[in-house]
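Batch manifest, entry 17 of 40.
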Amino acid sequence: MSERQVATRRRDDADLVLVGGSGFIGTAICDVAVDAGHRVTVVDRQPPLFAEDVVDWLPADVLVDDVQLPAGRVVVLIGGGQPRARWPWTVPLDTCLGTARLLPQLQDRRITLVSSVEVYGCRAGVLTEDEEPRLPWSHAALEAWCRETLLLARHSCRPWLAAPLCRNLAAAGHNGRWVYGLAKRAQELLLAEADGEFDLTVLRVANTFGVGQERVVSRLVRRALAGLPLTVVRDVVRSFVPVDEVARLVVAGLPSGVYNVGDHPIALTDLADLVLSICDSTSPVTTVVQNGLDSSGLVDSSLARVEGFQPPSLEDSLQAFVHALRSHRPPLFRPSVPVVVPPRPAFPDRVADYQQACLWAGALKSGNRWSAELRERLVEALQLPDSHDLLVTASGTEALRLAIVAAAPRPQPGDVAILPSFTFPATAEVLGQLGYVLHYVEVEADTWTIDADAVRDALASLRAKVVVCVDTFGNPCDYARLRAVCRDADVPLIADSAASLGSLHGGVPVAAQADAHAYSMSFAKVLSAGGSGGAVVFPRERGEDIGDWTRSALMDELHAIPALDQLAILPELVARRNAVAEVYAEGVRALHGFTPQAVRPFDRHSYVHWVMGVSPPARRPALERDLAALGVETKRYFRALHVGEDGASHGPLSITEQLHDAVLALPMSSELTVEDAEAVIAALVECSVEVRRPALASGL
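Output type: structure tokens
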């Protein structure tokens, strides 16, 4: 921002108040408004991308805080960030409940609502402002829902309190396709039919694009610049508009009324061709068929044009956008996306209700209703044979301790435990605490799970009393070979399956392939018990052997409740992670120097973490820094335990040491969408020297 802009923008009172103004469109509006000399206040949970002496920030969550808006014209931008949100019911939560909470403060104000052409739904033909929407709910049904929303909005709207109402609307959204359109239309109705007097302008915006947003145009451009294949939907038309043009309209302040804001409609196949031409790219284009009803995309913006909306041609706008992407490297995520995003509850209202009931009744100990039910449901989900039993535990560490105690003899001085060095420290810590001498062995070069041949060689020369294998990041071990090796040596096989709830080995759950299995339900895992918890599977005949070890080791009711919530949708959670993993794998295949973890045929990885090897390893620190600058956090999973450690024996571990130097985890969670994964890959492409240099060299 220039000194002139800072010097000319201040006035006595805020004259533009952006509610939800830290997002993509809000940032563009701030830029234009400050240039025009306006004083701007941003009301948002996240800080804006401007210094305090340029834009005022009022940190607030309109859902729960009683916000006092400063004077000025109010621009309502809340609820527009994630049209295809991970949890569809959160779209009406943010969009509609937030708006309803604001209504008492909007009296006698000028208001601009940034809405969407999605409100027309699957209405055929040219979309003009007087067209009736064609959405899953009628106008009357939406009005009735809005009345319930207004009642709920009289008080603080914590997500778990508003979830049932919001799920009602989301359930009508045809597998999520029309949830955003329904929510934005309800938002329009809440403002248009509110009590009191105010001046309302509604901008129904088409597909925006610009630096700072990762949607259709950005993804096509980034892939074209990188030489990656482009995929578009056949026979689909969309209208696109540069975000700067939307910002100029908002700042100019159109008269009250409803306006469509979009450029000339274009088929997505033609858009792909235009992008390839501008980027001078030879990337192949593939087309897919639209699934279900969709918008016509034929947006008529005549009314806005009468009021001065004159966007440049789409070709000129795309030229400018490509130039901006080549010239700048803004973050693709703000705030940064962590390596671990803990799963949210599917039904937070039920979780909160059940936990409060337990607290009120004092029924908190293990063995009450919910921990008992969790045990039963896990037995079913893991398809346990009658020969094995299961307990739910306070942590994955406690589960591993119980698994070893149940399946292995008590160690005598000098007894050895064989395990991989490429694992989480708790694997070794538990064995050391139980009195074993540790001996590390090699992992396989492709799957990164313990090498059965290395185990066999170690068993031939050591007084080993137990072998502990690790399903690395949720990737099942080669259990058939490991069982055979351990059986021949008459040594029990214990599986640290901390990450394997949801994994399959040979098409069946990882549960009884070893003599005992230990699972974790920490905050990082596919199935989380509210941040901590675990489970242990062990031979039923050894149940009495662990009785004295279970004091304070079993899961309480408060953690069992969120675990049950997640267990009910475990297949969906694993499928979502595998979808993210597929995007990552496809992305790194097109680049040089990245090797993802391999999975055996007929196995299913749960992908607690998605990890790749970086080659050469010396490249890893710069890659970490570059990804962090783009808003993508990474972590070095795992650090080899034998590196720099004394007191444990091992043979040559060249593969493990290579992994120690080279591995890097990208963000992984069932909370991430496929679109999020594509943005992470876009960041990886940006950080690839091989890709970035030709893009810059061709310049515009």
